[in-house]
Design a protein that fits this description.
This protein is α+β, with helices and mostly antiparallel strands. The protein contains nine helices and ten strands. Helix 3 packs parallel to helix 5.
Length: about 350
């Protein structure tokens, strides 16, 4: 694996960073600016980033997961309140099933997926039900047979939800627990397709967490450099220096393993890719919680107020951690891949 980014990948990262820096919320109050968030959504759509995993002429995806992860990381860094991970995963599902965009033009798979697998809908088990949508839209889901070895694409209706835990996304819930339609597609998805798609979700949730860590750390570093007590910047105090250094180490370790996870989705066999991305998610989940809590702590009392974005980074991290499972769930996946069975409910000391 070559960890160096190509000139094209550097340009992609710079473009994503520019869009986020120009149209991201910037402040907690900015999250209520619908005009700004609309311009951000338009910019992301026009950029073509939502189409990165669509079918290319050779029937493969247009780009590797590394490119998608680069964009996801920058959007997380800027707390971009626009769907990205979900639409990309929906495009990937359609590609795997041989379905074109015209098969479901009004559907989206947005950024928050519930438990894996999710609860049964009309006797079929959807592998992923998304939230963060406006009422009247539909989520694209995987519907499994009785053995959960063959999957089809289905639609479920959504209605507005009540949760405001993650201030960077609106939420939605499945309406009436009913499957709206089952898409007729050329291919039926098997276990390898499911594992590869799940690996994609884990890799992109890791990228989002790395971006969130970067944003939270930079916010804390800037505050520690400018906030003064006893006629000195608080960043000169050894206790805060230790906190920030530990957070930086955790963030950099997460960047390395998340980049490997993004590479693994396309480079490894689906079971191996799933294990690699699960290991990355377990690491990034723990690291993100520590880094974001450190950012709040560095800010002191103001860190939990509406005048500071530190708690918003923490909120986004808390939900991104649960996307396709947190640390415990993914440690179990890694151990299972290596044939290691653990007692039900064991925590391995992880959160």
């Amino acid at each position: 694996m070559d960890v160096r980014l190509s000139p094209e990948q550097h340009a992609l990262r710079d473009a994503a960073a520019h869009v986020v820096d120009r149209l991201g919320p910037g402040t907690v109050a900015g999250l209520d600016d619908m005009e700004r968030s609309g311009r951000l959504a338009d910019a992301v759509e026009v950029s073509g980033w939502l189409e990165l995993r669509q079918r290319a002429e050779d029937d493969g995806p247009l780009t590797s997961v590394v490119e998608v992860a680069i964009v996801a990381e920058e959007l997380g860094r800027g707390l971009a309140d626009v769907p990205f991970v979900g639409p990309v995963m929906a495009a990937d599902l359609r590609r795997r099933a041989g379905a074109g965009l015209a098969d479901a033009p009004e559907t989206v798979l947005l950024d928050r997926t519930l438990s894996w697998p999710a609860r049964s809908l009309n006797g079929e088990t959807p592998a992923g039900v998304s939230v963060d949508a406006t009422e009247g839209r539909a989520a694209l889901v995987l519907l499994g047979d009785e053995t959960a070895s063959r999957w089809r694409l289905g639609l479920v209706p959504l209605q507005a939800g009540e949760s405001r835990l993650d201030l960077t996304r609106r939420s939605a819930v499945v309406k009436d627990g009913a499957v709206l339609a089952v898409l007729e597609t050329p291919d039926v998805l098997g276990e390898d397709h499911l594992a590869a798609w799940m690996a994609l979700g884990l890799a992109l949730s890791c990228a989002d967490l790395v971006g969130v860590m970067r944003g939270a750390f930079e916010l804390a570093r800037a505050y520690a450099s400018t906030r003064r007590q006893y006629d000195a910047p608080i960043g000169s105090f050894q206790a805060l220096q230790h906190l920030l250094v530990d957070a930086y180490v955790a963030m950099e370790g997460s960047r390395s393993i998340a980049l490997h996870a993004a590479w693994a989705v396309d480079a490894l066999a689906p079971p191996d890719a799933l294990a690699a991305t699960a290991a990355a998610k377990a690491y990034c989940a723990r690291a993100a919680l520590f880094v974001c809590e450190t950012s709040v702590q560095v800010h002191g009392g103001i860190g939990n107020t509406w005048d500071c974005l530190a708690h918003v980074f923490l909120r986004r991290a808390l939900l991104s951690i649960e996307l396709f499972g947190g640390a415990d769930t993914n440690v179990e996946r890694v151990l299972a891949h290596h044939g290691i069975r653990t007692p039900v409910g064991s925590s391995h000391g992880l959160r």
